Amino acid sequence: MEDSLTNCRDRRSFFECLQNMIQNGTQGNKILAVLILDLDRFRRINNALSHRVGDLLLEQVAERLRGMLRKSDTCARIGDDEFALLMPTMNIGHTRLAASKIQSIMEPPFLLDGQRVTVKASIGIALFPQHGTDADRLMQYADGALSVAKRSGSRFVIYDEEEKDSAVPHFSLEAELRGAIGEGELTLYYQPKINVKSRQISGLEALVRWNNPKRGFMLPDEFIPVAEQTGLIQPLTLWVLNAALRQSVAFADKGADLTIAVNLSPRNLDNAELPALVLRAMDTWGAAPSRLILEITENAIMEDPAHSLEILHRFTDMGISISIDDFGTGYSSLAYLTKLPVDELKIDKSFVMNMVDEKDDAMIVHSVIELARNFGLNTVAEGVQNERAWEILAALGCNYAQGYYMSPPIPVERLNKWIVESPWGLDKGGAPQCRPQDSSTEAL
Length: 444
Fold this sequence. Notes:
2 domains; alpha/beta
């Protein structure tokens, strides 16, 4: 059977072809390569330019792929923006050349309704018989290698048995995470943000944690990549946003005028409806937009500057502050920085943690603070580990600081005690006791 849009095989037909080639041998060839290709930024193109333009892109991608195939090769569309290729080959070197050729044919811009659109692709590869002799297993391993490619930023990745523990288990982890979002397994930790001049807490950064019944306590680095790869990042972000806004209202009711920062994934920016969803969440909890800060990494903004600029302006029009996270590790130009409606730059902790001993890192921190001052922006230094680092930041005129020197991320129960007992807390006369919120916040 064929995919009606691209005239390539569909998923079922491709799988049957793979099974037949495994059963009948590879006609004298030693290797059968399964390649799964995923288009980067496809959802963003759909949202920004329309689904019809997205369909045109898929048609042209299929045409380019068919143009490079031999008679022995097979091409299929197996998902919204996923293609699969089946290529008998003599050795692994030829497979690498084929993957490189696919990348090359994707480089020229696509002309879509008069608009030139550049699209890159990530590729995962599994090989018969090296990685398995079962069609299901080969598809699973190729998809796992694709996940590694997207997570690492590599153009293509060949499945490696040594990477099995990291490449494949995301399938079970995805199912667990999908359930965790609605089952009360997630919780928020808060890291205080300290005003350097007053030496008192001014806000918090909300950081999600997962109490996984099978795997134990999990940090974001262990499950956020899976959420981004599987599309779960959208409901996960909405859960975090709802929980943080609900807690913000609880803080305000107890007299604590604290901002709460919520991190956005680069994949969140693909969703053109995100500002409307954030507005809906604020209305649901009666939260003031002035107490919400959205943190977006520098690289996420620069993936699609024009689209990011539009989204950020919609947030600032709502009265929400924008912070550029991990500043200094990306590639934004000063000229573009002047166009962004941002309020603060967060200096990446890798520079702050080493600046006491490394002159180059200290110079970068100094330069970012000066840059922000010239643009009228606040600066937040992450990763403040000791008193000496604090003193340097104070001398440089940094506005805010976060780090283990003041407090690690802590649950709200411990935060109550910290606010009362810590020298960085609020004035003792009016220190609030903030009621913890139920973690079963409903998603939007």
